Amino acid sequence: QQQVKQSPQSLIVQKGGISIINCAYENTAFDYFPWYQQFPGKGPALLIAIRPDVSEKKEGRFTISFNKSAKQFSLHIMDSQPGDSATYFCAARTGTASKLTFGTGTRLQVTL
Amino acid sequence: NAGVTQTPKFRILKIGQSMTLQCTQDMNHNYMYWYRQDPGMGLKLIYYSVGAGITDKGEVPNGYNVSRSTTEDFPLRLELAAPSQTSVYFCASSSAGFGDGYTFGSGTRLTVV
Questions:
Q1: Residues 6+ positions from B69 with CB-CB distance below 8 Å
Q2: B1-32 pLDDT per residue, tens
Q3: For chain B, does the N or the C end have fewer beta carbons within 10 angstroms?
């Protein structure tokens, strides 16, 4: 069964700190790795994504690091803000129908 | 642009009842998906469609059915509701382009009692 394993389940970070969420996958057929951000009562929204031929992608305070040989990727949130408090999901795509397999989510709380 | 619209937002069903969750997108996306989200479990794919008239099962299809008669609409049918179907249901759509993310609806919270 295709799986994407995500950790930690929850994370508390002080304002201005770095939040790090990790994911690992097994299926080498995955070809696209997005991260989604979800606020309570809302649907997930695409945050940032990376292809496996790139080792790092940065968009503002958000960075994805990708290690193809280890089959791991991570999300780094620099200068974390209270407004970043949300649940974050990693995902991996496979197949002609662009199906996504999601991790189990990380609930991030950024404290003042 | 409305994006992906799901109705209803909330629903309580009794065991054995049936209902249809509606999903409409106005972005002319070919691909549409239904996921369910349970606490600590992430999102699990129920059914998906790559175009009008074409649907296929995802990871957890039992107890559900779908149809795709138009590009815009992708309803999810629950037959004989069971407590195990208590969940939050999300519809999503995507264009066929490489690297395009999903656009999700705001979800339907379903409780089966």
A1: B52, B53
A2: 679 999 999 999 999 999 999 999 999 999 99
A3: N
